[in-house]
Amino acid sequence: MGYNRHLYNNALYNTWAAAVDAFAEQGRRFYVLEVAGATGTLLARLPLWGSAVLRERVNTFPEIEFTYPYDDEFASHLTTGFPNLIVLRDRDGELLERFAISKVIKERTPDNAKILTVCASGLLSILGKENVDSYDTAGTPTPVKEIVRDLLNDHQNNGVIRQVRYGSISSAIGNLDREFKWENQSILACLRDIQKTVGGYLAVDANWRFTWKSTLGSSKGQEIRASKNIKSLRVSTDYDAIVTQLIGKGYGATDTTRLLNTQTNAAAEATYGRITRPYSANTVRVQDTLDDITAAHLDKLDGPSIGYGVESIDLSEADGPLDYSDDAIELGGRVRLIDTDMDVNISTCIISTTRDLGNPMDVQLNVSDTNAGSDLYPDGAPTGTLGAGEGERTFLDDIADLIRKMLEQTTQDTGLIDAVDQAAANDEFTDVITTQNIDSSGAVLSDAVPEDTATAGAAGTGTKAAHEDHEHKGIWQAFP
Predict the structure, then answer these.
(1) Is the residue at 229 inside a domain?
(2) Degrees (nearest 5) of the Cα angle 256, 261, 266?
(3) Could you give the CA distance from residue 124 to residue 126 in angstroms, rounded to a whole number?
(4) 40: helix, strand or coil
């Protein structure tokens, strides 16, 4: 998406007082960054952050990277690094996410600007720093929710960073019985081991609450389509990902005592021949569990992996008279990806996003591989093509094209704005949207899977609030 890490040239860097106000109106009117201590106590708002990018992916922690002037009075809170936190808010002050600082780079650029580049990871990453000296279910099948409670309650011993607390686990996951034994592994590694056997989606929200959902995302009839909101599309087919025989290796000190399971996909083998790979599941102590997860993993590998990379426009971020909130690009969202010239027409889900915080309409995303499964669809994503009469251009597509033309211009064109207003005035339309949950196979559920909740209280927001006005607000307007 072309964000420039070396934003601060000499002219801008040496004239902050004159230049920052103009830049703040353009780049910092959407989001606010703060730095906080290890327990969340505010240390400073960061009024001069430069280029910033937010990366999110299902089943891992989000990451943020941004630049900041090295000589600014608040830079010392950043150079302190971990355990300080970065806090992300929307322009109205609503808390979106907290991140633990993971890396700080000090740099003098060729044009003599002195800048910091700060990298930080979501709160789930904190569990990767907590060690489990020893844990054993002692051969007794134990509900997953009890194992997770034990890990969070008894093995967070850092003493400085705030502890992650048990929030909620879907009953479809939490009530399953499992057996595990760990020694000297991080809490996060232990949770990953459980996840291999039960699936679902791990997260820690901005309020330090651990959650484990069995479903993710929503289905709104959303399209990402060429001539509407696709800027570029890249489709890659990886034949090295094909495996026709998988050898699962479970718990055991040696090959003679280790649990083993070999699975073969006869149909794939007839097409591609025998291609054998090992699959490590060292903490699995039950043979039936190893058999199941080896077979499930092999099912994802019976054909080439197809990757879809899209550079898109998030129309929901556009200021204007029309409501594009249902075109918001969100992690886990069920979408139809269409580019007829590239022979792409699939029903899929968004599994990762990379967003330029200075221009949130500019989003790079990846969607799930409908052939080989994905993190979002462990059992294989649903496939589908448009039926006769579907996928025709609509009034909304015409408006999207007009908005896109406006975005490509360096100055506003009042004629185009008038055209948008006139189009809206001349057409009547009804947009009916339903928001639903999807399960791991991609099926739409009418109701959410009930959660096993241990802690009451308002849930963290986790998503960017819709803009209720179209004013260009600066940071100090958001926080008077």
Answers:
(1) yes
(2) 140
(3) 5
(4) coil
Per the structure, the complete domain to which residue 319 belongs is given by: 219-237+305-438
Residues 280 and 323 in one domain: no
Query: What whole-number distance in Å separates Cα of residue 174 and Cα of residue 450?
Result: 11
User: Could you tell me where the DSSP H helices lie in 136-198?
Assistant: 144-154, 171-174, 187-198
- Same domain for 35 and 91, yes or no, is yes
**How far is Cα 49 from Cα 8, in angstroms, rounded to an integer?**
10
Of residues 392, 305, 390, 385, the one with CA closest to residue 343: 385
Please, what is the end-to-end C-alpha distance for the chain in angstroms?
A: 32
CB atoms within 10 A of CB 111: 12
Tokens of 245: 């025989």
> Residues of 38-56 as b/e, b for ≥16 C-beta within 10 angstroms?
beeeebbbbbbbbbbbbbb
- Residue 467: the pLDDT is 33
45 & 72 share domain: yes
* Distance of alpha carbon 156 from alpha carbon 374, whole angstroms: 31
Could you tell me the two tokens for 319? 């200021």
- 294 and 310 in a single domain? The answer is no
- Do 250 and 264 fall within a single domain? yes
**Structural domain includes residue 185:** no
Residues 233 and 361 in one domain: yes
DSSP 55: E
Measure the CA–CA gap between 182 and 197, rounded to whole angstroms. 15
Residue segments in the chain with a per-residue pLDDT below the cut of 70: 1-28, 370-480
Report yes or no on 83 lying in a domain.
yes
Q: Is residue 203 included in any domain, yes or no?
A: no
CA-CA distance, 246 to 261, in Å (whole number)?
Answer: 8
Q: Judge if 261 and 318 occupy the same domain.
A: no
- Residue positions counted in the chain: 480
Q: What is the domain-level CATH number for residue 25?
A: 2.40.10
Which residues 6+ apart lie within 8 Å of 262 measured at CB? 245, 246, 247, 248, 294
- Given a contact cutoff of 8 angstroms between Cβ atoms, the answer to whether 95 and 461 are in contact is yes
Asked if residue 337 and residue 224 are part of one domain, the reply reads: yes
Q: Left (φ > 0), alpha (ψ -120 to 50) or beta: where does 474 sit?
A: beta
C-alpha neighbours within 13 Å on the C-beta side of residue 361: 20
d(CA 48, CA 45): 9
What pLDDT, on a 0 to 100 scale, did the predictor assign at position 320?
72
So what's the pLDDT on residue 402? 52
Could you tell me which of 130, 146, 243 has the C-alpha nearest to residue 188? Answer: 130
Nearest Cα neighbor of 383 from 372, 375, 397 is 372
Tokens of 400: 């999207």
Helix (H) or strand (E) holding 244: none
How many structural domains are present in the chain?
A: 3
- Residue 229 and residue 281 in contact, taking contact as beta carbons nearer than 8 Å: no
Alpha helices in 2-93 (DSSP H): 10-13, 16-27, 75-79
